[in-house]
Amino acid sequence: MTPNCNNCEFKNSSLFKNCSHDELNHINDSKCFNTYKKGQVIFHEGNRPLGLFCVFNGKVKVSRLGSDGKEQVIRLVKKGDTLGYRSLIENTKYSASAIALDDTQACFISATEFNNLIDTNVKVASDLMRMLAKVLGDTQDKLVHLAMKPVRERLAEALLLLKSTYDDKKAEHFSISISREDLSSIVGTAKETVIRFLSEFKEEGIVSTRGSEITILRADKLLQISSLYD
Amino acid sequence: MTPNCNNCEFKNSSLFKNCSHDELNHINDSKCFNTYKKGQVIFHEGNRPLGLFCVFNGKVKVSRLGSDGKEQVIRLVKKGDTLGYRSLIENTKYSASAIALDDTQACFISATEFNNLIDTNVKVASDLMRMLAKVLGDTQDKLVHLAMKPVRERLAEALLLLKSTYDDKKAEHFSISISREDLSSIVGTAKETVIRFLSEFKEEGIVSTRGSEITILRADKLLQISSLYD
DNA sequence: TAATTGTATTGATAAAAATCATTTCAGCGA
DNA sequence: TCGCTGAAATGATTTTTATCAATACAATTA
């Protein structure tokens, strides 16, 4: 049931790819394997981080809630990704919450274990640094696009982000089941506004929907729409 | 003229606070001291980073330009701050430009020198990591506020950001000379919109202006306005 | 000091998006 | 299969913000 780190699907692609066999064994012995139902909170804004999550399966959103109840998604997390490292490094409370978008499984590594690892393995530390730099760059992109692009463009971009993050290439066209509420908090707009532009995309044959499931038929068109302002 | 690292005002507060005397000497010997006039470009979006800047004096904005000419400020940089590290760590082209908001002086440390330092001094590397985490957190805050707060709130926040970044506490009230164009690209809105809300703030006795100079009279009120949605 | 130039300001209008209200649809349990 | 429920979709309207146009002001220089 619980995956073994030395045998993990993400052994060569995760943050821990430069760990030794022994280091992985050590992590494996101390880690904790958790299962989350769709919609379940993995960690909550304001709480103290006790360790790091390593997503084994599923989809996770990292988001913040405004006082008016509006939500903004900061990051999408997929299997193989680590989760919750920023607060851990800064040693501050979580500034956002992580919520499962699907049934999700994740390993939990304690803070001491993690800190010990990055203190002793320089390669992991420098991989972590590069990861932070990468995520910072992505976040800056998001910021700029939010400020400069209209909703239609941002929606196209969000759909492409979902595709590039979660496409397993098992089907001809990428499909995802996502509530319009969630989609709108990725785009940073109102639910109804997202629905309206989605309807436009449907009329233009770019996407199709069935209930909450969205299928991307023409990723090329989305790319074109999303980069009108680049 | 050129400041000596081992005697620098920011020796104990900069990214290099955990460098040894010898390391600082080494940096000092290889560094390059540059002067930039107000409005001058320090580095330009799309170029390859050749090293790291350490701001000695002045004010700098890091911003990106959209294809329509609109600008979005990503970060404000003050004396003692380092500049240009993200692209350097990721080893990618600059994704944004750095432009002097005032006459500015900065030391330039070559990429090899810098990489050598973080490879050999673990403390500097871990300070750098914490700095990245901090800046990432700040950027996420910006993103969320941009998505959730209306312009009035964001303007109040931007004025407080300017104050907290550049206030040298030499005067009773904090003043800054900033073009409405620059201010609007910090807030992420149109110039005229910023001016309108500034005028409101003036009527309410929160700020006063003289030409492009803005004086903050009631920071408490700005804080109140900016946090309506928190 | 007067003219000039660029920026700040104000006003009028248009566009974009949010909000509120209503209808339609899909999934689900009885 | 039929309701039932919650989410998706559409419509009408309001609010917010952007844009365009005109004026006022401040700094600079002839």
Automatic annotation (TrEMBL), chains A, B:
Ranges where the Cyclic nucleotide-binding domain occurs: 15-118
Keywords for this protein: DNA-binding, Transcription, Transcription regulation
SMART domains, A to Z: cNMP, HTH_CRP
Matches recorded under Gene3D superfamilies: Jelly Rolls, Winged helix-like DNA-binding domain superfamily/Winged helix DNA-binding domain
UniProt cross-references to Pfam families, sorted A to Z: cNMP_binding, HTH_Crp_2
Metal-binding among keywords: no
Domain HTH crp-type: 149-220
KW DNA-binding (keyword) present: yes
Cited InterPro entries: cNMP-bd_dom, cNMP-bd_dom_sf, Env_Response_Regulators, HTH_CRP, RmlC-like_jellyroll, WH-like_DNA-bd_sf, WH_DNA-bd_sf
Name assigned to this protein: Crp/Fnr family transcriptional regulator
Species annotation: Arcicella aquatica
Lineage: Bacteria, Pseudomonadati, Bacteroidota, Cytophagia, Cytophagales
